[in-house]
Amino acid sequence: MKRFVDKYYGTYSVYTIMKSGIYVKCPHCNGLGIVTADNLLSYFKCTKCGNMMTKERKNYRYEVHNQCEQCGIYYRVNITQKRQQHFHKLYVRCPFCGYGMSGAVQKKVESCYSLYSIQNACEPFFGLELWFLAYFNGKPVWALNHEHLTYLIEYLSADLRQKPAQLKVRKTQSHYLPTFMKTAKHRDKIVKLLNTMQNKG
């Protein structure tokens, strides 16, 4: 009987793997690229063609600050529409009395992004497609890197799955997995699919 001890929740998340690297498909040559990130910047480098990219990890907030000429209350209005964020001045209404005034659009650094997730089988920093990606019944099956892929294969192919020792919270890494991957009737087919992905390199 093949026994497997599950990993702690968040062991293979974008946040925990972003320093070691997320495997992606290079947009120029379709070769293997690696995305990493620190507190300020995210980086991409292709292992095949050498293509490189760097991107700032700051999150900006756009606001108009005014003191209403009618009611005298000082207010701040968040500008959420992207097309409006490029203007130097905007006409906004006082949230207290509705009086309209023009005000300067202020751009402020809010924070670095800290919570990331995979969307549409793409990593969140540059929006690049994951390297380890396949589809099962039209649903994406993916891994962030070699280590994550190995975990998926070992977890799904095990006969007995156990929680880590001294686990203080209920969730484990397997809680990240969609239900269709954990369903008994699908496991063998998905493990076969994952093994094919592993042979890809």
Summarize the structure.
By secondary structure, the protein is of the alpha+beta class. The chain has four helices and twelve strands.
Describe the structure.
This protein has 201 residues and is an alpha+beta fold. It is built from 4 helices and 12 strands. It has helices at 14-17, 146-157, 179-182, 184-199; strands at 3-5, 22-25, 32-37, 41-46, 52-56, 58-67, 74-78, 89-93, 100-112, 132-136, 139-143, 160-162. The strands form 4 sheets. A 4-stranded antiparallel beta sheet has the order 2-3-4-5, with no helix packed on it. Strands 7-6-9-8 form a 4-stranded antiparallel beta sheet, with no helix packed on it. Strands 1-12 form a two-stranded parallel ribbon. α2 (146-157) packs antiparallel against α4 (184-199). The longest helix is centred in the last third of the chain and has 16 residues, at 184-199.
Notable traits:
alpha+beta; 201 residues; elongated; single chain; 4 helices
| Major sheet characteristics | 4 strands, antiparallel
Radius of gyration equals 23 Å
Helix content: 10-25%
Largest sheet, spatial ordering of strands: 2-3-4-5
User: Between the first and last Cα atoms, what is the distance in angstroms?
Assistant: 28 Å
Uncertain segments of ≥5 residues (pLDDT<50)? none
Overall shape: it is: elongated
Total strand segments: 12
Give the overall average pLDDT.
Answer: 92
So how many helices?
4
How would you classify the helix and strand content by structural class?
alpha+beta
What is the N-to-C order of secondary-structure elements (H for helix, E for strand)?
EHEEEEEEEEEEHEHH
Q: Which percent band covers the strand fraction?
A: 25-35%
